[in-house]
Structure prediction request, 172 residues.
Amino acid sequence: MTTITAMAEHVALYAGSFDPPTLGHIDVISRARRMFDRIVVGVGENPNKQHMLAPKDRLSLMQNIVDSLPAADGAPVEVQAYGGLTVDFARMVGASALLRGIRNVTDLASECQLAIANRQVADIESAFIITDERYGFTSSSLIRQIVELGGDIQKLSNIVPAAVLEHLKQHG
Prediction:
């Protein structure tokens, strides 16, 4: 007689400040939806960063973007705000892995160091997703700099979702 045991749900936490959300972030989420049973996007606060967008705006924009993802293309995605340590939030949402996007070799080096620390300190694994090459040099900090220095926001249309572009035009 064979006993069938239920497998645990595989939940990935994709945590970040998402200030602002980019098409690279969406690319990582879309790829991860084919690998995990559920994705939680954690919109957090980084006390070491000067944020351009208010927390409620980052949360709202990310929710808008996630709501536009086709339901049939993979695992469900939920968006939540959090404060404090990412590993504590990961435990709270039942995450089995921290999802991290890798754009280039520089990202890989710093993310590996963080992944090892998270495994040693919090006993949680990290899953790396390599973004599409179109987003290899996309970063929220670069977008913030362009906006804050009065650059042409319309030129960001190939690296930020439409909802983010509209928000930046109205509030940038």
Remarks:
- The longest helix spans residues 105-122.
- The CA atoms of residues 1 and 142 lie 60 Å apart.
- The mean pLDDT is 92.
- DSSP finds six helices and five strands in the chain.
